Amino acid sequence: MVKLSVVVPFYNVQTYAPDTLRSLAANAREDFEFLLVDDCSRDETPQILARAEGELPGARVLRHEQNGGLATARNTGLDAANGEYVTFLDGDDWLAPGHYEQLLATIEGLGCDFVRTDHVQCTARARSVHRVPHGRRNTVLDPRALILPADRSTSVDYAFAWAGIYHRRLLDDGLLHFRHGLRTAEDRPWIWRLHREAGSMAVSGLLGVFYRRGVASSLTQIGDVRQLDFIRAFDQVIEETAQDRDAERLLPKAVRTYCAIIAHHLGSIERFEPQVARKLRALSAAAMKRMPQDVLKEALDSMDTQRASRLRRLRRRPVAAEVAV
């Protein structure tokens, strides 16, 4: 019986993959499996993974013939997972030795559907601890209760899939797969769905995941059209939340978060290619017109002056009859 399945997508990360794989080896156990998904890498990553398949206990390499993006790569790993529990790691991040054993002991001790953990963010030589934005630790909680309040950072805003562990029943119930083809913000509809539909969760202060930020090949560093997938991701959040039994209570949080992300991208629009910047403005204006207008007005009224003014100007912008991502 496989106790834990670890899904690890890799794409053109030859510089970092050896560190990632060494950290997996320091977490290996005879009942753990490591699903290494090569998302059609064009550098030396496939050769590195081929060696790892023979050296890392429990490793299996799954290869894409075409690049599908992070969401699709994670889904490939989930489809192959045999474990009672599932977790994720990205191919340029790494783990503290023994982290997965501690993480597994935590969720088994609590008996909940999923556990979220803190992490260490690594930018060049700098290290900083990032906490799940909820104070109660090692206590079983109702995930739905951790969505609100709308005007504060909550657990649904801490969207990192790799910062946690998930019981297989969530996978069997269709709650762990990502929207196929999303190139960025793939964790957002995913974490909202977990909080709306899972039965129980907990937060742990374990600090065993090291998140490498600022990698040149990461989409967070690239101002091309793939960044605009956040529109599709948040459209899904709004659409699904609007159908929820608590839609009236939850939609203000979803809309306010969507607006905050739009404002963030507009605030750094100079990093986008000119044609992508124009498309960002057009798609964002169209997205605001799709939002529930009464909820949108309340969200803008609750935001700081700079962001609210930027978004109100965008809201007044004429939108073409057809705008597609």
Put the structure in a nutshell.
By secondary structure, the chain is of the alpha/beta class. Helices cover 40% and strands 16% of the residues. It has a seven-stranded mixed beta sheet, sandwiched between helices.
Would you kindly provide a written description of the structure presented here, covering whatever features stand out?
This protein is α/β, with parallel strands linked by helices. 40% of the residues lie in helices and 16% in strands. It contains 11 helices and 11 strands. The strands form 2 sheets. Strands 3-2-1-4-9-6-10 form a 7-stranded mixed β-sheet, sandwiched between helices. The protein has a 4-stranded mixed β-sheet with strand order 5-11-7-8. Helix 8 packs across helix 10 (293-301). The longest helix is centred in the C-terminal third of the chain and has 21 residues, at 247-267. The protein is globular.
Gross morphology is globular
Helix content: 40-55%
Mean pLDDT, all residues: 94
- Ends apart, CA distance between termini: 43 Å
User: How many strands?
Assistant: 11
Rounded to the nearest angstrom, the radius of gyration is 20 Å
Q: With helices defined by DSSP (H or I, 4 residues minimum), what is the helix count?
A: 11
The main sheet comes to: 7 strands, mixed
How much β-strand is present in the residues?
Answer: 15-25%
User: Largest sheet, order of strands side by side?
Assistant: 3-2-1-4-9-6-10
SSE series = EHEHEHEEHEEEEHHEEHHHHH
Give start-end ranges of low-pLDDT stretches. Answer: none
Helix-and-strand structural type: alpha/beta
